[in-house]
Amino acid sequence: MRIGIDLGGTKIEVIALADGGDTLLRKRILTPQGDYTATLQAIHDLIRSVEAELKSQGTVGIGIPGAESLANGLIKNANSTCLIGRPLRADLQSLLHREIRLANDANCFALSEAIDGSGQGAEIVFGVILGTGVGGGIVVNGRILNGANAIAGEWGHNPLPLPVSHDLPLPACYCGRHGCIEAYLSGPALSRDHFQQTGLTLSPEAIDQAASAGNGDCEATLRRYENRLGRALASVINLIDPQVIVLGGGLSHLQRLYRNLPECCGPHVFSDVFNTQFRPPQHGDSSGVRGAAWLWN
């Protein structure tokens, strides 16, 4: 049995998978806010409750909103700031008395979709998170590509390629830089762009609904978004040339992206053909936690 944990800023989700990938159990609890010790205890208690209910001990993989430093094993780049600088894996191993595998949540998403989801059978899968933030993970032949600095796939903190007039001035990013892809392509960034152009505050879902009903301003906002997303993903395609890009996060529900992205990416891809496929996640909101379980594949 494989147990996966998705440690989010607002929720902690657990899943138990049978060896073949069937879901045995899935539940979630609220994440203790800003309390590292309470978060450790919540994960411990959740795993123990799953094993007691299923009367079996499992391997444990955990997806986190950050990465483990290769230099000292401490958590870095986490938007759940109480994790930063903490030896999360070592502390959990001490609590649970077993080896823990840990990975970035976007890597877990990509792994899930590559193993038995929308990217199954592809040599290279790029998993994209378009939500509150922008992240990514790379899976090659069924294995996560971590990289020399444990940041492979972190395209969200590259600068947006080829900025044009409506991309200026370069927006500030929480990382301290300006013009990051995340500052243009997250859900809040889409709403902010619409507000800057129209003075109206709308959610991405409301913008999409209004555009479908013929609202020209909302259509223009989504076209700007798609143009930026196309340029940003083209740079990824030129580097790793994935067969499949799976979109995750809240904005992956915008069905128009799957129709329009090939046209937006194509002119910026250094090739005479464009074969990369854009697909929605087969496992939806379960992909991250499933991928954490598959860390023991």
For this entry, give a set of tags:
297 residues; alpha/beta; Nucleotidyltransferase, domain 5; five-stranded mixed β-sheet; 36% helix; 20% strand
Describe the protein in words.
By secondary structure, the protein is an alpha/beta fold. It has 2 domains: 2-108 and 286-296, ATPase, nucleotide binding domain (Nucleotidyltransferase, domain 5, 2-Layer Sandwich); 121-281, ATPase, nucleotide binding domain (Nucleotidyltransferase, domain 5, 2-Layer Sandwich), CATH 3.30.420.40. The chain has helices at residues 36-54, 88-96, 105-116, 182-185, 187-198, 204-212, 216-240, 256-265, 287-293, and strands spanning 2-7, 11-17, 23-30, 59-64, 67-68, 75-76, 100-104, 124-130, 134-140, 143-144, 244-248, 277-279. Helix 6 packs across helix 7 (216-240). The longest helix has 25 residues, at 216-240.
Question: What is this structure, in a nutshell?
Answer:
The chain is an alpha/beta fold. The protein is 36% helix and 20% strand. The chain folds into two domains: 2-108 and 286-296, ATPase, nucleotide binding domain (Nucleotidyltransferase, domain 5, 2-Layer Sandwich); 121-281, ATPase, nucleotide binding domain (Nucleotidyltransferase, domain 5), CATH 3.30.420.40.
The biggest sheet amounts to: 5 strands, mixed
CATH topology of the largest domain: Nucleotidyltransferase, domain 5
Count the beta strands. 12
* CATH class wording of the largest domain: Alpha Beta
What general outline do the C-alpha atoms trace? globular
Share of residues in helices:
25-40%
Structural class: alpha/beta
Question: What low-confidence regions span 5 or more consecutive residues with pLDDT below 50?
Answer: none
Mean pLDDT figure? 95
Distance between the termini: 11 Å
Q: How many domains in all?
A: 2
List the secondary-structure elements in sequence, H or E: EEEHEEEHEHEEEHHHHEHEH
Computed CA radius of gyration, to the nearest angstrom: 19 Å
Strand order of the largest sheet: 3-2-1-4-7
- The H-level CATH homologous superfamily of the largest domain, spelled out, is ATPase, nucleotide binding domain
Oligomer: single chain
